[in-house]
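Section 3.1: Structural characterization of target chains.
Under the original work plan, the team committed to producing a structural model for every single-chain target entering the pipeline before any wet-lab resources were allocated. The record below documents one such target. The sequence was received from the expression subgroup and is listed exactly as submitted; it comprises 135 residues.
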Amino acid sequence: VLGLLVWALIANTTYHLHAAYGWVMFVSIFFWILTVLFFMTYLLQLQLRFHVVPWPLVLMIFNAVATVLYVTAFVTCAAAVQPTSWRQWDYNRRAAASFFACLVMITYAVSTFFSFRAWKGLGSNAATSQVTDHA
């Protein structure tokens, strides 16, 4: 939802006049689509059909790459906001897009942390642990 807000807010401005927002649009739309695809994969449990793919590692790499690219998109978006813009609604939308880009960046960073823990096996819980009886 946050990624959708980023590209919807940027798309609702005259972003084509500023080259920096092209990068922000690419990153936000690309990772929004990939995130929806991963979500649908896990929702439909399609990952269980592909045993060869190391899903925890794939998710960790995906989240790490998304974090790094969202850092660049956030910095680009925030640096391109001009408070002296003659179109006040563009300024407000671009500033809001910068804020939400920061939230998406933080969200992907937290997801990277939890994906790393799942990959290393540090985040076991009652649903994933297996109890063995050593009698």
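The chain has a mean pLDDT of 84.
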